[in-house]
Write a structure and sequence with these properties.
By secondary structure, the protein is an alpha+beta fold. 32% of the residues lie in helices and 22% in strands. Residues 13-307 form the Nucleolar protein 11 N-terminal domain.
Length: 706
Amino acid sequence: MYVNMHVLCIMTHVFASVKVSDQKPLGSWSVKQTQAISCPAIYNSQTKEYVVVHDKKVLRIWKDEDVNLEKVFKATLLADVCRIHMLPDTEPLVLFEGGAVRRLDVLLTDPQQEIEDIVSEGEVIRWSDSVLEAGSPIVVFITEKNGAFHLYTQKLNPDMQQKFKLDSGEEIGCPVSFALSLNQEDIILTCLYSDGSIYKTELPPRRRSCVENEQALPRSSLLKLPGCKARSLQRAAIRLLDEAHIAVLGAPHSLQPTVKESLSIWNTTFQTLLTWKELPEGSCGQLWCYSGKLYVPHGKVLTVVPFTCETSSLAAVLGKLQQPNTAEMKTAFTVVNWNALLYDEEAEGLQQAAARSGAKLEPKRILRSRKSQGASTQQQSISQDQLLNQIQTGTLEKVEEDLHIFFNNLQSPNTQLITAQITTKLVHRCLEEVKFYPQKALVQLLQTQVLSYSLCPDLVAVALSKADYFLLQLCLQQFPDIPEAVTCACLKLFLSVSDSDLQDVTLDFGDVACYIDIENQSPQHTETPEVVQNGFSPGLLENSCDLPLPPVKSHQPPAFDVNSKCPVSLQKAALLNEILLSSYSETFLLPHLKDLSAPQVMLFLQYMKYLYVKYSETVNTELPGERVPTVNQVLDWISLLLDAHFTLLVMTPEARGLLTHLHKFVRSQVKFYSELSKIEGSIQGLHQVKPLSYDSRYSIEVIKLF
């Protein structure tokens, strides 16, 4: 299932939460090998908890910070659970295999309570869903027994049950997939049968319980899929997109025998196919729809398909839908009295007619001027198709000009899809024509803040080939789903470029200048008293480790100095900060970090050491600014870099002194915080000391800590 663009992946023994935009797991939990997850998990947004059932009767509830499922809340129920349903702003509903429904909070008050059976013996629940009707949750499920299908509705508060019979037989086959929707106050059930027929059924009002007397539900034909024979569909799924559009998965969209399974979208009003996508690897018969996107798992891949539904009309089906021009002016006409002209009426009447005619000519001239103004305004706008054609053949200046005009007049809810399509066209032309590179246009597209790496993966590759540092900085700032290999490619480029090449490059420095000093030190230093900042001083370094320091030549600065300057320029520091702020997975990042050369590793390590020293100079270990890497991020990158190049650094003479001093500095920090922890209890005890009564005279109070 999906939760706010987070997909919950359930396997036999493993449960994982994956963020779709980043394509990275947020967390994973597993049960024992002897246990098996028996129904889909849910996420309760009210309590921020996950709920899952394994072995049909064991209920587990936990939060994101929980690691081991064996240590989270556990409840063993008396009856087997079929599924847990979640509706917005309501308590989760637990559907048992016997047909009973309980609220989760009521069930947790007494997990060993008796659960009644509603369905008959041998009747198996094949599908279930839930919907809100007038604020009250209703659970709808369909059962099968000996080829006969029945539909049950369970309404809570007040408790009400109904049972209906679904049609099935040799002519139409058996129902394969179902979709539940709410049309105002009516609950609509859409059924896909094994012969490719899709029927719509409106459930009767729920006024009283009726389980004993079975009622046959009337149905109406909605769509007939081509290429389907009797009982040819065994595994398929449908989802209603709106009142006139439906998505079908796992069924052929045409009579072509080569296409076995596909995802297709149909217009049910005009019985037409709008679009389709072939699935050569097949599907598992699961299809989800959420927030304008279709989620299709097939094989080991989860495909996310954005969609938009136009207004259902014949013009839209024929592809000739035009937006009405509401600003169109109406022409004023002058009405002439022809009787007065033909029969020589009095001159006064003619003069009045002429006067009326002349009075109406002036607005007519005004309307012509307005029409010309509207035409000139229309010439300044450009459509999406015109812009895409201009991108393919136009000059660089013309493309950038038309792109600026297009986005100034863009007013569409599909801004993300339109921007991604335009960016893809631009990038493809950049790959085909080496001399074509619209840097301003690409920057403008990135500044819309609607793009991601998955929408236009070749954009970063083009920026790397052109060594466009500003464009790469924007991509790192706005793309949360950049793969680790691309991140390391950007890091190699940033570390290899010289500071002189970056002097004239336009970059977003942010607040880097607030904490980085890149000016050269003066050759003469005045001796200043030693100041201990956040537990660090050179004296602590001398006594914190017994490792011998390599001799330092007189003409070289000390290998480790709190007053040392930043080893990189301001421009390169801004770029390296974007690398430190990027998201990554250690498993995928480590192999690519090993591609860095020894000088690049040394420079990156020196810069991170400089940042770490800067953090130690502040009381709260924070640096000013918004887009600034935290001390934890710096330490994580230092650990990763050491893990990837430890052997190389140990064998490099230039790195030995750096590693030794970095090791001593970390030990001095550990020693300082360990000393602070010793007096933590005493300092906390000061809050419990009752204040003494003081007189008006001056007094000194001595508090003994040890």
